[in-house]
Amino acid sequence: MLKKEHVISWLSESFSVLEENRQYLTQLDTAIGDADHGNNMYRGFKKVNEQLPALEGKDIGAVLKAVAMTLISTVGGASGPLYGTFFLQAATKCTGKDELTPQEVSVMFKAGLQGVKMRGKAQPGDKTMIDVLEPATTTLSELVEKGEPLDIAIKEAVSVAMEKLKETIPMIAKKGRASYLGERSKGHQDPGATSSMFILEAFSKAIS
Amino acid sequence: MKKLINNPDDIIKEQLEGMQAAHPDLIKVNFEPYYITRAGGPVKGKVALISGGGSGHEPMHGGFVGHGMLHAACPGEVFTSPTPDQMHLAAKAADGGAGVLNIVKNYTGDVMNFEMAAELAMADGIKVQNIVIDDDIAVKDSLYTAGRRGVGSTVLIEKICGAASEEGYDLQSLSALCRTLNQNGRSMGMALTSCITPANGSPSFDIGDDEMEIGIGIHGEPGIQREKIKTVDEIAEMMTVSILEDAAYSRALKEWDFEKNEWVEREIVDEPFKKGDKVIAFVNSMGGTPVSELYGVYRKVAQVTEKFGVKIVRNLIGPYITALEMQGCSITLMKVDDSMIKLWDAPVKTPGLRWGV
Ligand SMILES: Nc1ncnc2c1ncn2[C@@H]1O[C@H](COP(=O)(O)OP(=O)(O)O)[C@@H](O)[C@H]1O
Ligand SMILES: [Mg+2]
After folding, report:
1. pTM of this prediction?
2. pLDDT, tens only, B164-219
């Protein structure tokens, strides 16, 4: 079971890891983007983190919706509307719920992923956050279907995500700012895929 | 990093405070969230022309708010798209009842944020159209990239469409004009040095003393190609020829369909320049290049266009769409007809561009 307390600690863990890796993410975005991804994510999740005390009594849907609105209005860039849409769509699957079964968690991730794909139109292999979010979501839902407990399923999803993250290095970017570099985008890990990885890790940490 | 700043976290706010203090007769700055409107409030019965983008490109866009140009502008963090709540509130503040046209530069973030903003404003009953500007020919195709970036044409389009709004164009005809101007304009940029964003404090890319970066955007991102530096004649000729000889460019851009009530992709083709075309030539500094050097560039642009048989009927020379302190320039050529020239000549009174008044 995923309790609403877990969701709150997922979000605060996300802030911690993004704060810790602010410079690292910006460095990755310096190589193939415009050097702001770490700053964008830090700004957004700092605001989310500040709001957490006020969200503690709320149901999971309401918490995720509030997170979405905060990210949409503070992150900016490409990642703002994308992560905002992720949480907004995820929220629609948790309306009024104080806890989620592993199946419901998998449905929540799928809805979030679908939202990002709708908004950004990226496919796996385009060197974006989709290259981490999609395989992680697939792994999670397959394991949950098999009856694995949530913490085991998410651990496995994180380790798959870690491998897939490394696979973004040789890719040529086809979406977002990095796509302007063409061949020159090879050899660099995608910043958005990296922040997705951190957020998934934070989820795993929050429930174990 | 050497910059005239206090704390890097406060620069957007402080610089907007400075703008407000300098131009209370022209603009009004809203601080939470950030957007800039005309001092006189919404203009009744005229389509509100709004743009926005990351900060660091000044005077664009905030410096173009005022009579004859924009009705509102939304500044983001440095080089980062503003957010939908800013754009939504700017639309509400600027709408004079005739609807809103958002001029959106083609960057993934800007496009998505403006889409969400248009949806929010439409939910309030405001008629909104988004027209995407994509004129940077350094980006060759739209199949394997996010498509051509919006650069220099944006400035010329904001001026011409601003004048058309004053003339009373309705939302549909203003959108059509904006789309046509985008199809008519092509740009290319280059850099001699990188820029330093205040939040990072170090150059966005490394470049040798004897190197230049060709095909840059306006965000300190690397360009398409790195070369040994050449003379201004060689550089300006290469850029102007690339623009003049750029083949037809086809891609799909999203616009709102008022009948279907949804976003639709419109297939749009930019035809290449041809002999006899009349153009506005815009030579722009990326921030660090002095105006004197821009005239060195313009000299060659004028020679090359003349040889090609294209006539420059108006020009704009100076720093108008910049990338902080980056040294470098961009060249834009935009084909215009007589009615567009008339709109170009119409009075404009903004902090960044002013004539005829
Ligand atoms: N169309 C898209 N779909 C999914 N993810 C995208 C898309 N475009 C960009 N991204 C992700 O966004 C990240 C960049 O985010 P950020 O630097 O915050 O925004 P910006 O590119 O506007 O500066 C990229 O590394 C990539 O993972
Ligand atoms: Mg970026």
Report:
1. 0.93
2. 999 999 999 999 999 999 999 999 999 999 999 998 899 988 899 999 999 999 98
**Nearest ligand, CA A39:** 1
Number of domains forming the structure of chain A: 1
- All domains of chain B in start order, with CATH: 22-184+249-272 (3.40.50.10440), 188-244+274-335 (3.30.1180.20)
Distance CA A168, CA A31 (A): 14
Residue B140 above 90 pLDDT? no
- Ligand 2 centre distance from Cα of residue A195 (Å): 12
Residues of chain B with C-beta less than 8 angstroms from the C-beta of A77: 76, 80-81, 109
Which domain, by its residues, includes A156?
A: 2-207
CA dist B351 → B12, B40, B178 (Å):
17, 14, 22
- Separation CA B108–CA B73 (nearest Å): 19
The CATH number assigned to the domain holding A88 equals: 1.25.40.340
* Ligand 1 atom 25 nearest Cα: A192
The Cα A167–Cα A177 span in angstroms is: 19
Residue B142 clears pLDDT 80, i.e. is over it: no
**Which two tokens mark A199?**
């957020």
Order of strands, edge to edge, in the sheet holding B35-38?
A: B27-30, B35-38, B72-78, B48-55, B100-105, B128-133
Q: Are A72 and B33 within 8 A, CB to CB?
A: no
Alpha helices, DSSP H, located in chain B: 11-22, 84-94, 108-123, 153-167, 171-184, 232-245, 291-308, 338-345
Q: Is B219 tagged catalytic? A: yes
Whether this model's ipTM surpasses 0.90 comes out as no
